[in-house]
Design brief:
The protein has 260 residues and is an alpha/beta fold. It has a domain at 11-163 and 193-210 and 251-256: LmbE-like (Rossmann fold, 3-Layer(aba) Sandwich), CATH 3.40.50.10320. The protein has helices spanning 21-36, 58-76, 106-120, 137-150, 164-177, 203-214, 225-231, 237-248, and strands at residues 11-16, 39-44, 80-83, 124-128, 157-161, 196-200, 252-256. The radius of gyration is 17 Å and the shape is globular. The mean pLDDT is 96.
């Protein structure tokens, strides 16, 4: 099984752009690795402020998202989490504004990530694949920065991705529940990777992933999809990803290795 060799005494470093990426991209792997005894460390580049759209203060949005992230990490079994560089980059939903993660340079991010790698000394790195899993510009930026930082390090890097067929299955599920409604940003298309590896984690990892996603929005992980769409306000990639997880299995994640 993928990552089965990572047990007690090993360290897994997970690198993401926003809070909740750790669940959508790596939730099953994190829960499984933690259960196996690997020390899982998470570093997140922005505070996910854009997701807390009912507040006007960036500081308050970051505080709220931080609390959700902390609770999700507890559910998954993350041993330690922190920001890549606290307060340096803000989540602006992909809009290029001053101080946003979207406008950060690959070299600046890579420098910070390289420092983390040298400090933590992980046995493996987890991040998103070349298309950022969803096509989000911040995710793609993180992928490029991790690949740059890891190029000079002797540590394997695995990038999470989805197949076009996975996304099609998710859309099919939603079409039966929300006929005629468009769900998703349109950036998430999936990709066929030349060196794929599929994780099929134990059932407890799927349960932990659902519970962690619920920390970000009530019912996002636990409610049946037909019930969730009645109460969940969004019709973006989060809802599409939820449908994809229902379609391919919550214990399933796809990784490409090596990441370039």
């Amino acid at each position: 099984m993928l990552f089965s060799h990572l047990g007690k005494g090993s360290t897994t470093l997970v690198l993401t752009a926003h809070p909740d990426d750790e669940v959508f991209a790596h939730g099953a792997a994190i829960a499984m690795l933690s259960q196996q005894g690997s020390r899982v460390v998470l570093r997140t580049a922005s505070g996910g402020e854009a997701a807390e759209n009912d507040v006007t203060s960036t500081a308050e949005a970051r505080r709220r998202r931080s609390a959700r992230l902390d609770a999700a990490c507890t559910r998954l079994g993350v041993h330690e989490w922190n920001w890549l560089a606290e307060g340096r980059w803000t989540d602006t939903a992909g809009r290029p504004t001053p101080g946003s993660l979207t406008t950060a340079s690959v070299s600046d991010l890579a420098e910070v990530i390289a420092d983390q790698i040298q400090t933590i000394i992980p046995d493996v790195l987890l991040t998103v694949g070349p298309d950022g899993l969803t096509g989000h510009p911040d995710h793609i930026l993180i992928h490029r920065a991790v690949a740059t930082a890891a190029a000079s390090c002797d540590v394997p890097v695995f990038g999470s991705y989805l197949l076009p067929a996975d996304i099609a299955q998710g859309r099919d599920l939603l079409a039966t529940i929300l006929p005629g409604e468009h769900v998703g940003s349109g950036r998430m298309t999936g990709r066929d990777e030349p060196s794929p590896a599929t994780l099929a984690a134990p059932a407890h990892a799927a349960e932990a992933r659902r519970a962690a996603l619920d920390e970000y929005a009530n019912g996002l992980g636990a409610l049946a999809l037909k019930n969730l769409v009645r109460v969940f306000p969004g019709r973006g990639d989060s809802l599409l990803l939820r449908a994809v997880l229902d379609a391919i299995g919550w214990q399933t994640e796809r990784y490409t290795h090596p990441v370039t």
